[in-house]
Amino acid sequence: MLSFENDYSRAAHPAVLDAVVRANEHLYSGYGTDELTGQAKAKIREACGTPDADVWFLVGGTQANQVVIDTITPAYAGVVTISSGHPNVHEAGAIEFAGHKVLALPHHNGKMDASELDEFCRTFYADANHEHMVFPGSVYVSQSTEYGTIYSKAELEAIAEVAHRYDMPLFVDGARLGYALTATGGDMTLEDLARIADVFYIGGTKVGALFGEAVVFTKHNTPKHFVTRIKQHGALLAKGFVLGAQFDALFTDGLYFAIARNANKAADRIREALKAKGYTLTFDAPTNQIFVTLDRPTIERLEQHIRLGFMEKADDTHTVMRICTSWATTADEVDRLIALL
User: Fold this and answer.
1) Residues 150 and 285 occupy one common structural domain
2) GO molecular-function annotation terms (predicted)?
3) How far apart are CA 278 and CA 43, in angstroms?
4) In this structure, are 148 and 288 located in the same domain?
């Protein structure tokens, strides 16, 4: 059975596993205060072109989203995202559980529109009763999006400009950041993202790590007592060196970007095959997530041999399914999938 269900079923890249094994031979101080974690942070700062950025390691994406949104958003405010955004759909109410309402705008192929964000904020402040309402307090987007699409540099700059005009920090979820930054046609670099966003994270769980995300604050804006806030959320890992070891490996010799590029190349081949065979691609997405609209007989035929991901119903007879490649997808697996289409 071929598996194209997600990009986190494989445990980790061999270099990451080797790094953890080597770390096991030494004793390190706890909670990310060790020299291995410090080394990983330095490599990330260099890759971001921000030598004074603050870098923090958390275990997973929901942790990262909840901790960051809760600490950057005023207690009286909510976070503005889009209807398909992860905090609005797939966080099990974690953001609301921490005390912040999710304020959802419409999405456009998984992306936020800066003019709609501006209109939302203008309308809010024009209401004479806005002191009785939930303020827009921060902005969340993901790169790449839930639908595998990516923001251009200009699009993200426009969103940041609106957010800052209304005194809101821009937070970019980078669970699949490696795939976004290496996608064909993308014009954004990690240095661009560090310049535009107030805080973002570099996803490891879905890009070659056993687990882990690197949260980066880029503008001397780390919330006060951030370690304490992380621990209040139950998100502080005592064996922080395990996270440090993984990101040290991922950011050695460009490994993070090389393995992400492998996933995108595999996805590009599959997309071309789908088009050639007459399938309907749901979104024009250049990353490792491919969305295809299928009827029930086709889904049943393919799922005899391939694990696919369910996304959403398209209509009464069609469903949007996801084909997801990963850093570990091989050419042979792609060949076998294409033969089954």
Assistant:
1) no
2) lyase activity; transaminase activity
3) 45
4) no
Q: What are 14's two structure tokens?
A: 């061999």
311 pLDDT above the threshold of 90: no
Q: Give how far Cα 11 sits from Cα of 33, 112, 205, 206, 211, Å.
A: 25, 32, 9, 10, 8
DSSP 49-73: T-TT-EEEEES-HHHHHHHHHHHHS
Number of domains in the chain: 2
Cα–Cα distance for residue pair 320/310, rounded to 1 Å: 7
Q: For 85-130, how does the pLDDT look when each residue is reduced to its tens digit (9 = 90+)?
A: 999 999 999 999 999 999 999 999 999 999 999 999 999 999 999 9
Euclidean distance between CA atoms 155 and 111, whole angstroms: 9
State residue 107's pLDDT score.
Answer: 97
**Residues 272 and 323 occupy one common structural domain:** yes
Tokens of 317: 């007879």
Which of 222, 255, 288 corresponds to the end of one domain? 255
